[in-house]
Specification:
255 residues; mainly alpha; 12 helices; 70% helix; globular
């Protein structure tokens, strides 16, 4: 066992759950959420952690944290979102546009928004700001979070196979590799958001890229980030911004 695995096993499931819960509350912890999930899954695949315990603990962190953020956005944190959200890509214009669109969204549409990296944060916040009933929001959050976590557990098992192969070849896997991959992911999000929002201020693009990066940075999520605009919640998210036109305020039909 290398120093990286020793570090993970030392702090273990409670630490990963706490960090994921904090992030799900909306606190911008500079660690990609999907990296924690993949990391947990690799340790499950290696036999160091128990599958059902890890999956349920991380799912609970996502759902409890997301629900708390939703409730805070309905009242106590509304001013904070509009005042400071721009630093993680949640500008007032983006919040207003998303709020108008999710007002009539059903659980399935909310689940898609929660599943999509780079869209999850604005979906949760907008549902709270729009006063979406909890009975509609919670099923969408649960389904979207379960799918998001499940995808990264499958990816984690694949990563563990790769790590085992590297170990047999004597290739060290440590913090330099992890940090390097994280930086590549951040650069990829910046390039993707710049491509999707031509003409937007660099500061806004950088803030939105950083916000998306702290949600997810794996190759699967970057691909979802590319195709995300075809889905209803994401498709019109920046419509007309670089053309100086107002974003389309059409809401998603109830499901």
């Amino acid at each position: 066992m290398g120093p990286f695995e020793q570090f993970v096993d030392l702090y273990g499931l409670p630490a990963m759950t706490l960090v994921l819960l904090t992030k799900s509350l909306g606190v911008p912890v500079p660690v990609p959420a999907d990296a924690l999930m993949v990391l947990a899954a690799t340790r499950v695949a290696a036999g160091a952690l128990v599958l059902w315990e890890v999956f349920l603990a991380l799912l609970a962190a996502l759902v409890v944290g997301g629900t708390a953020q939703f409730l805070l956005a309905r009242g106590p944190a509304r001013g904070l979102l509009y005042g400071s959200g721009r630093y993680i890509g949640l500008t007032p214009a983006r919040l207003d546009s998303a709020t108008a669109r999710v007002a009539g969204a059903g659980p399935a549409a909310i689940a898609v928004g929660v599943l999509l990296p780079g869209v999850r944060a604005v979906t949760v916040a907008a549902c709270g700001l729009a006063g979406v009933p909890l009975r509609r929001f919670l099923p969408g959050l649960l389904v979207g979070s379960t799918l998001f976590l499940g995808v990264h557990f499958l990816l984690g098992y694949a990563v563990q196979i790769g790590l085992s192969a590297l170990g047999r070849l004597g290739v060290p896997v440590g913090w330099p590799l992890v940090v390097g991959l994280a930086l590549v992911g951040l650069a990829a999000w910046f390039g993707l958001r710049e491509w999707q929002r031509p003409g937007a201020p660099t500061a806004d693009v950088a803030a939105e890229a950083a916000g998306a990066w702290q949600e997810a940075t794996c190759p699967v999520c970057l691909m979802l980030g590319v195709i995300g605009p075809v889905f209803p919640i994401a498709r019109e998210e920046h419509a007309g911004e670089h053309l100086g036109e107002p974003a389309d305020q059409e809401t998603i039909a109830p499901e």
